[in-house]
Amino acid sequence: MSILAFTDLTKTVAGGRTLFTRITASVEEPESVALIAPSGQGKSTLLRLLALLDAPTAGELRLEGKAASGWQPQSWRRRAAYVAQQSVMLPGSVAHNLSTCSRLHDTPFDRELAARLMEAVSLSSTDWEKNADELSGGEKQRVSLVRSLLGEPAVLLLDEITASLDQHCKLAVEKLLTEMQAAAKATLIWVSHDLEQARRVSSRVWFLADGSLADCGTEDFFRRPPSLAAERFLSRQGRNEDAGEGGP
Ligand SMILES: Nc1ncnc2c1ncn2[C@@H]1O[C@H](COP(=O)(O)OP(=O)(O)OP(=O)(O)O)[C@@H](O)[C@H]1O
User: Fold this and answer.
1) Where is the ABC transporter domain (predicted)?
2) How confident is the chain (248 residues) per 10-residue block, as mean pLDDT?
3) How far apart are CA 70 and CA 11, in angstroms?
4) Would the CB of 37 count as within 6 Å of ligand 1?
5) Which residues constitute the domain of residue 36?
6) Ligand 1: does its nearest atom lie under 6 Å from the Cβ of 90?
7) Is residue 220 part of a domain?
8) From CA 76, how far away is CA 71, in angstroms rounded?
9) What confidence score (pLDDT) does residue 42 get?
């Protein structure tokens, strides 16, 4: 059974522009999918729809086999967590931020797990008593990821979460998440402009362009782009391997 699925999803935004029309796809547990598109095609919008942070114009979403209408939005978001590029820290300390989920759901705060996750994203030396607002952008991004992981979501909707990280931290985050996925602890949907990253972390690609979604294996996507739009996109990024324009 798919853990997350959408059928005939259409989204028209203010001003009347339709970003995508009747797109359908699903993700199995515990897959890792890269959502790729030229800028402005609706990647973040689609991710926000999948987190029930925005409503589709038409179409149906299902999580764990149950339609969105049958879920409380907060319960849905607890299972399918959206991790934003611009992370927002709650007022208070790093520890206060890390324990958000346990306070919200009245469950014990697993300090040991939090420490392990902080270490995995290269934040072992962070002072937990520090005001979270004083962290750098990249530190906030990683604390925000750890905060989400502590809620043990089944699906992580990752919106360019490594965009402000240096290479070392980026790879640390990728390693943590791919290990979780390999251990069947999480299904991942990554929005990324970084095609090297998409190739490293995913086994499938959803390519969004001209209002349609193409769904294919990651290696196939790079070797045999599924559409002219994908071919042009890879070509512009210098990644069309058939055209001999590069690649690892
Ligand atoms: N609520 C909204 N109201 C009006 N326009 C919107 C809204 N949400 C998104 N848009 C527009 O829809 C388009 C797609 O936005 P979105 O951020 O989803 O694209 P994207 O593929 O993630 O872009 P990028 O790669 O540049 O981050 C943009 O032109 C954006 O301005």
Assistant:
1) 4-234
2) 95 96 97 96 97 98 98 96 93 97 92 97 97 95 96 97 94 97 94 96 97 97 96 85 42
3) 21
4) yes
5) 2-88+156-236
6) no
7) yes
8) 6
9) 97
Side-chain-side CA neighbours of 211 within 13 Å: the count stands at 11
The pLDDT of residue 1 is: 75
The answer to the question of residue 112 being in a domain is: no
52 bridge partner residues: none
Give the three-state DSSP class for 206. strand
Amino acid at 5: A
Report CA-CA distances (Å) from 127 to 6, 42, 170: 41, 37, 21
Ligand 1 neighbourhood includes 86 CB (under 6 angstroms): no
Question: Helix crossing, 137-149 with 167-182: angle to 10°?
Answer: 10
The answer to whether residues 67 and 33 touch, using CB atoms and an 8 Å cutoff, is no
Complex confidence, ipTM: 0.95
Question: Residue 65 falls within a domain, yes or no?
Answer: yes
Main-chain dihedrals φ then ψ at residue 167, nearest 5 degrees: -60, -40
Residue 243 lies in a domain: no
Q: What is the CATH number of the domain that holds 211?
A: 3.40.50.300
Residue 39 C-alpha to ligand 1 middle, in angstroms? 9
Closest residue to atom 23 of ligand 1, CA basis: 40
What is the number of domains present in the chain? 1
Residue 196 Cα to ligand 1 middle (Å): 23
Q: Which residue has the least CA distance to atom 18 on ligand 1?
A: 42
Q: Is the CB of 39 under 6 A from ligand 1?
A: yes
